[in-house]
């Protein structure tokens, strides 16, 4: 008799579709603490700079990676949560208002769904689709800054939050690839918010930090402040370009160049040793050629300097280098030795590499997948309810009992509200019992701004000999 397959009702599966590899992380949420039980990564040829260019090839990679992780964990995966890269995202403020009743009554799930649908209408732009809505606060009549309005008494309900949208065509390709792989996407998560969940501490998320993701196909820098994305910039060069440069300069295959990069390359030429020899299989030669470690580092650094210079200009224009959290580096290329110190020297800020410390995940490639499962696990009940509207083609107002059943069946996607929040509701309802009228006051939203202080990016010299390969 075969080994029993684990029940999948408590599994959270995070899918990270990268340019070079597709990664999956599986966690068990059946207990009070999230437990990582497996991960896998497979190459894909269906992506280009973060976008799907071949649905079938991407679907094959998704199918393979999820089959691998199913085998490793002895589970059967049905639904997944997928990360969306910041390069696809647009953010905008959104507001929705609905009348609850002509006579004050208790607010329920249906009211929250209606006001959410009202706010979502602001994101119905041509060519873009809402992937998630982040409610910042609710307002019941005159009472403001409410986290969860349900069971409060009121006549009107307002929500303010942030809409994250992505191109419809790109989302269609992702959904189609997942569907062809034989799986269902439960919902989307903005990848930087997911990574911030695990890579940054509370102070870094609140006061401001740069998340620098150097992957295979692109490099992204995202400012996280007050736990929100406030700015992002994308450069369409990354780790794959380092590999191509090595291949071109040393006249070797891409496979050999990738191996040389992983095994021998360092980010900073000043930290490399001239007397260390690196063997390279050169096209047309029977025996490997020998190059010095510092020469290899110069090849790698020439491209890195260009990437960091371009990314740095956008960050500098937003005074990002003055943020107290500095830079936290993620992505597969972050494993390059000396990269953190190079970035710290280039931008004159504190910099560190984030790698998950969970058993089986101690690889920078899994930062996004690990962040996705944590983000999903820590969703509050109200967040889950709000985004159930986002993930419906039309607003379907279900009886409360049906909504509650749906929430109960997906309880691993939400956390219970703090007890202090329940106390706030009790106090508010006591006050509402003495109120006869209500008016909704619209307030202007102001964006957070960091102090405007110039910050110069450190310049470094590169050998003229290598410049011709990268311009």
UniProtKB/TrEMBL annotation:
Any single GO CC term annotated in Swiss-Prot or TrEMBL for this entry: cell division site
Main location: membrane
Domain SHS2 residues, every copy: 12-199
Domain of life: Bacteria
Keywords: Cell cycle, Cell division, Cell membrane, Membrane
Disordered: region residues: 418-458
Ranges of biased composition (kind: Basic and acidic residues): 439-448
Membrane topology annotation: Peripheral membrane protein
BP GO terms, sorted: FtsZ-dependent cytokinesis
Residues spanning the signal sequence: none
Subcellular location: Cell membrane
Similarity remark: Belongs to the FtsA/MreB family.
SUBUNIT field: Self-interacts. Interacts with FtsZ.
Function of the protein: Cell division protein that is involved in the assembly of the Z ring. May serve as a membrane anchor for the Z ring.
UniProt protein name: Cell division protein FtsA
Organism: Amylolactobacillus amylotrophicus DSM 20534
Lineage: Bacteria, Bacillati, Bacillota, Bacilli, Lactobacillales
Gene coding for it: ftsA
């Amino acid at each position: 008799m075969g080994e029993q397959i684990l029940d999948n009702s408590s599994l959270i599966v995070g899918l990270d579709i990268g340019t070079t590899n597709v990664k999956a992380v599986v966690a068990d949420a059946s207990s009070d603490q999230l437990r990582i039980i497996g991960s896998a990564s497979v190459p894909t040829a269906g992506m280009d700079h973060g976008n799907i260019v071949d649905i079938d090839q991407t679907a094959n990679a998704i199918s393979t990676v999820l089959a691998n992780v199913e085998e490793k964990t002895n589970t059967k995966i049905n639904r997944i949560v997928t990360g969306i890269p910041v390069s696809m995202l647009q953010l905008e403020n959104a507001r929705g208002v609905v009348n609850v009743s002509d006579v004050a009554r208790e607010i329920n799930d249906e009211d929250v769904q209606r006001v959410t649908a009202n706010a979502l209408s602001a994101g119905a732009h041509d060519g873009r689709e809402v992937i998630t809505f982040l409610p910042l606060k609710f307002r019941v009549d005159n009472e403001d800054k409410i986290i969860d309005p349900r069971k409060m008494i009121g006549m009107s309900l307002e929500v303010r939050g942030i809409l994250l949208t992505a191109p419809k065509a790109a989302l269609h390709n992702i959904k189609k690839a997942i569907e062809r792989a034989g799986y269902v996407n439960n919902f989307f998560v903005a990848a930087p918010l997911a990574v911030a969940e695990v890579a940054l501490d509370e102070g870094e998320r609140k006061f401001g930090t740069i998340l620098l993701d150097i992957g295979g196909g692109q490099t992204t820098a995202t400012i996280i402040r007050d736990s929100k994305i406030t700015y992002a910039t994308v450069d369409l060069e990354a780790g794959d370009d380092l590999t191509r440069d090595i291949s071109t300069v040393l006249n070797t295959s891409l496979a050999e160049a990738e191996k040389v990069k992983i095994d021998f390359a360092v980010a900073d030429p000043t930290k490399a040793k001239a007397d260390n020899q690196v063997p390279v299989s050169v096209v047309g030669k029977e025996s490997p050629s020998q190059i010095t470690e510092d020469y290899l580092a110069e090849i790698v650094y020439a491209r890195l300097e260009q990437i960091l210079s371009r990314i740095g200009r956008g960050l500098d224009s937003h005074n990002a280098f003055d943020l107290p959290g500095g830079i936290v580096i993620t992505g597969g290329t972050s494993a390059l030795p000396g990269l953190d110190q190079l970035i710290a020297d280039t931008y004159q800020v504190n910099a560190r590499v984030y790698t998950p410390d969970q058993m089986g995940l101690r690889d920078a490639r899994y930062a996004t997948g690990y962040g996705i499962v944590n983000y999903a696990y820590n969703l509050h009940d109200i967040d889950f309810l709000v985004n159930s509207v986002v993930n419906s083609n039309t607003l379907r107002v279900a009886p409360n009992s049906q909504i509650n059943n749906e929430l109960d069946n997906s309880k691993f996607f939400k956390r219970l509200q703090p007890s202090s929040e329940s106390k706030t509701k009790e106090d508010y309802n006591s006050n509402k019992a003495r109120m006869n009228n209500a008016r909704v006051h619209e307030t202007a939203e102001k964006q957070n701004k960091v102090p405007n202080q110039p910050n110069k990016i450190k310049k470094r010299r590169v050998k003229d000999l290598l410049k011709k390969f990268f311009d």
